[in-house]
Structure formats: C-alpha cells, structure tokens
Amino acid sequence: MKLHKILIANRGEIACRIMHTCKRLGIATVAVYSDADRHALHVQMADETAHIGPAQAGESYLSVERVLAAAKQAGAEAIHPGYGFLSENSEFARRCEQAGIVFIGPSPESMEAMASKSAAKALMEKAGVPVVPGYHGDNQSLRKLEAEAKRIGFPLMIKATAGGGGKGMRVVHSAGEFKDALDGAKREAKGAFDDDTVLLEKYIRQPRHIEFQVFGDSHGNVVHLFERECTLQRRFQKVIEETPSPFLDDATRRKMGEAAVAAAKAVNYVNAGTIEFIVGADKSFHFMEMNTRLQVEHPITEETTGLDLVEWQLCVAAGEKLPLTQNEIKQHGHAIEVRLYAENADKGFLPVTGRIEAFETPGDDFVPRQGLPKIMRVDTGVRSGDEISIFYDPMIAKITARGKDRAEAIRKLRNGLARTVVAGLVTNLPLLRGIARHADFAAGRFDTGFIDRELKTILTHPPLIPQALAAAVAQELAILEAKAAGSPWKADGWRSAGINGLRLAARNGEGNEQLLRVSGDPRTFVLNVDGKDHEVRARVMHPGCWYLNVNGESCTVEVLRHGDLMQVIIGDEAVSFRLTNPFAPKPRRAADAATHPLSPMPGRVVMVHVKPGDTVQPGQALMVLEGMKMEYTVKAAVAGVVEKVLHAENDMVDADTPLVDIKPRE
Ligand code: ADP
Ligand code: ADP
Ligand code: MG
Prior knowledge:
By secondary structure, the protein is of the alpha+beta class. It has five domains: 5-104, Rossmann fold; 134-202, 2-Layer Sandwich (Dna Ligase, domain 1), CATH 3.30.1490.20; 208-458, ATP-grasp fold, B domain (D-amino Acid Aminotransferase, Chain A, domain 1); 466-580, Glycoprotein, Type 4 Pilin; 603-664, CATH 2.40.50.100. 46% of the residues are buried. The structure holds adenosine-5'-diphosphate (2 copies) and magnesium ion.
C-alpha cells in the first residue's frame, strides 16, 4: 500500500469504520472534528486530530477550505470523504486534486456526470440502461410540467434533480394534487440543494429498491459486488438492507449486474459506487440514480463477500488494480443490516435528540453475558453517555447479522435485537424488532410501502407475561436484599416488612399497567398480578440471568435493567416495561398543545405562514420547521385567531417549544 497517512473528512460511525481498516493496514489517520464532537469516538480513535470549526456542518464538516487546510497541515496524502458531507461534492474532489491530495473516490468528472438525476438518466438511456419513464428536460415551466405529468399519468413522482437523502421528493396521486406537491418539492429542494430543478417519473407500483455495488479502478476494470435489497424504508430512506435480495432470481440478478457495470463504465467510473434500481412487481428494473461514494449499507456486502470495501477503495486510490476479477467475486450466506435511529416511529418518524444513557448490543466489543459468541457486526460512532444532537444524522448504529441462509440471519438478528439496550432516548428499536419478527418479512413479501402500511402490526408490544414480570421482580428483590445486607439495621426492617406486600406497577409501551404485589423471600415468592397469584422460585445463574420456575414451569430469562426500565429476554423476544412504585406522583400534563402548538422536534423555522390577528382553520399550516434531515409543517389543531407568533424565520427551536398562541373560537 502506497498510502501512509490519510485524513477522514467525516464523523460518527463511518469515520470509525474507515479508521478500523487503516489501523489494520498500518495507515496513519487524521480525524477532523467540530465543537460538538470534541469528545467523540472518532476523535479518540485517530492518530492525529484537527479541530475544524463550530457544530454547524456548513462551517466545519462541509467546509472545503477548512478540511483542505487540515489535510495540508497534517501532511495527509489522501482524504477519505465517507458518505454525506463532502463525499459527492465534485468541487471538493477537484480542489484536492489541485492541492496534490488524493481524493479517495471517483474523478470529479464522473461525479458531475451522475450528480444531476436528470443528466444521469439521459446518459443511462444512451448507454442502454433501462430508466424509469418520465420527463427530465430543461423546460421547468408549470405548463410544461403539468402537460408532462398528464402524459406520464398518475401516480407519479416529482424529484429534485439535485436530490439526495429523500429530500425534495413527492408522490402525486392525481392532477389536482400536482401543483401543491410541486411547490413543496421545489421549496425543499431550494433549501437543501440551492437548486429547485425537478424531474417527473412514473411511480412504479409495489416497488422494491435493489441496488448494485460497483467498483472501478484506474486501469479500466469495472466489477459489481452483487446487490443489496433496500426496500424497507420510511420517508424514502432506508431502514433495513439485506443481501442477497429474496426477490431476485438468478437471471434477473445477472441482467441487473451487467446493467450496473455498463452504467459505471459509461462514466469511466473509478472507486466504489452504487447503482440504484427501482424494481417492479413483474421484476422489470429501472435505473434511478448512482451514488458516487461508499454507501451506508456497505457492511452487508462485506459480510457476504468476505471483502473489505474500504481496503479496496484505498488500493484503487493508490493506483492499484482491483484485487479480484468479476469471476473471482463470490457471495456466501446472507446478511441483514438494520439502522438504529434516534427517532419516534409513533410520531411520524421524527428525529429525536438527547443523551444516550446506555447503549449495549451483542456485537464486537460485547462482553458475553452467558458466553454468547459475537452474533452481530456493530458499526457505531457513539457510546453510552454520548449525545445525539440536532446538528447531525440521528443514526446511533448499524447492526448487521449474518447467517448461512436468510432464515439463520433473521434468527440471529432477532436474538441480537432482543439483547440490544438503548436507554435515555426514544429509538426505532421496537420498529426493528417488530419487522424482524414479522411474518411478511420472513416470507420476503414487502415493497417500499411496507413500513407505513403495516406500522400497526409491526409496532406490537410483547405482552407482560408472568415470567417476564417474575424475572424483573426477582432482580428487584435481589437488589433490595443486597442494599439491605449493607446495613444490619435495615436488613431486619426489610425482611420483616418490605417483602410482605411489596407493591409495584409494570407499564409497557402501549400504556398497559399491571399492579403487582409480592410476598415471600427473594428466592421463593408469590407474585400477585392484577389479583391472580403466581408461585415463583428464582435462582440466579449469572448476574442478570435467572433460572425461574413459575407455577411449576421452568425457563431461563435474562434481565437488562436501566433505572426503572426493564428489558426481559425470553427466547429471542424482549419484553420491555417500566417497573415503578405505584404510589409515586404522576408527571404533570404538558400545556394544551391544541391552542399552543409545540415544535415536534428541535430545528430551524424555515417559514412562518401566519401573523397575529389571522383566522385559522384546523389543518391550516402555521409554520414550517426543518431539523436534521427533514421538513415538518406545524398545523393548527383548532379553529381560532392567532394571538401571538412566538418565533420568526431562521429561529432555532428546541423540541416541545411553543410556536404560536391561538385563541380558539367559542
Ligand atoms: P441514499 O439514501 O441516497 O441511497 P445512503 O442512505 O447510503 O444514501 O446515505 C446517505 C447518507 O448520507 C444518509 O443516510 C446520512 O447518513 C448521510 N448524511 C447526509 N446528510 C448528512 C448530514 N448532514 N450529516 C451526517 N450525515 C449525513
Ligand atoms: P435519493 O437521492 O433521495 O436517494 P432516489 O431517487 O434514490 O432518491 O429515491 C429514493 C427512494 O424513493 C427510492 O429508494 C424509492 O423507495 C423511492 N422511489 C424513487 N423513485 C421511484 C419511482 N419512480 N417509483 C417508486 N418509488 C420510487
Ligand atoms: Mg437514492
């Protein structure tokens, strides 16, 4: 390897991921960081570090000047951009070139050829790669777009040609919806990409997103490393990815692989890239876009090909040939990756911020509880105590399970997710567990609408069965006993009074509450659940691991506990609930949200639609907020008159901040 020192122009899990490979290959690493990331894991892992500015990405991770200055200062020979941030910025790649620093990625020319979804589609048509039928011309007048929409027919998609990350995209079901959707897409595109050019595309029904990993070198070789099925999405963004796709047959896979290689060759592609296809129920496939970088979901490709894609990127960037030819690249087994996000599935998947009080998952660094081997690959950039802030992506980790076949990978995923704990903030962990145990997922029966459509059947909470409650109570009693043991005076008091009629309440995510009453001793007790007695014998096997006998039936369970949060693992199912003192006072209710609408997430006010004195109707837009990677319109819940507008455009607001005061109409 000709490279000795590289700078990583990114943060979080991807910066850590790149450094893992560098460490293995003996390449020195330079991390860059913003004010918000002073103590971040990626900074701790690096050989050298460079502070590049304030928390706002625009003035740090997205600053071409600052990143380049840091690279020069450190004497780095190359820059790895990761994904997001500057990774698809051809101007940055060009500036690196001019500064004599290797940009670990494609040439600026290939990036530019694929940067606009419209130009890329035109190019692909020429190269004989099938594209989604639609309109991707220069004439952007409303009349032209409306006429083209009629020609294409509904449903159709409007997409920002500069788009990415699901922004500036709308599905339109009828001509009547077209203009509003166009305005929305254009506004979002203008804000996010400073370019409101759009294209129109036929909406492929029951679509599956299947992409191919491609790789090129500077000697003219291009190969593909098979597909990744990324159909499970919310807000047009991937949540679960797997390979091989359960949907493809060998013939279609071969045709798509050839099309992907042709697409990459058409732009003389060098380094790692992804060709995204949208696939119809009839297995017809169409080019959607090319991502000219390493993809978030690359671990599943690594887990099934046994290759290190970052190592390949470094080899290619150093001018070497691809390590393998197409025929030598083989796939074994099955891998599934889930993206663990700080977000609230019950509230439209809004991003959540806050401190991660605890994050544990049975991955690489996992200390086995019951001698469990590593069952999953975990890519993360955070640890317990870190903050998910408004400034960056709310992803906590990528968790990848691998099996000899799909069924085994799903079993390991369920098992691993049951044993994953995140405390301190709301995450999509219940959603991920719900999908992993869903019958349609097991059968490979899904399309991109699956999560939205099946949300109710996915987000079911495992019931509070007596075994789960008994395990949590046994753990609670053991803790009380240990505390009491520390003080002989308390021990007596506890023994004589505490356990006779100890009362607890268990409440799960659905708000179901059960009242518990416990009598006996920590190893043999009677657990009364809502008036029904259960005889329990409990023996601790390892800390947190119990051998239980409930009403004559034995089982082994694990209890993970954070404060009053209990996670009891029975088989590969996690039963989560809060175990509390039923006599504690209830928290006060929030202010009346109907007359004082609150911001649902932290973010920036991008538009204010009302002023004091305006009359509003339920559903009327009041303000548009932008936070992390999405836009959200706050709407009136009641009819009334606006009394006060509490925030102006460009104000930064926290979650649950009052935005507008409305005097309801009597
Ligand atoms: P796509 O959805 O276009 O196929 P990926 O999902 O592979 O692409 O990756 C896009 C990723 O870029 C996002 O998921 C996100 O993690 C990253 N990204 C985009 N914007 C930001 C940002 N402001 N901060 C951090 N990461 C970002
Ligand atoms: P981005 O650059 O934001 O990743 P894409 O063009 O890749 O945008 O589209 C993102 C997602 O939107 C796809 O993964 C798919 O779920 C959906 N999508 C895009 N185009 C179509 C289409 N023509 N028909 C149906 N779904 C589509
Ligand atoms: Mg995409």
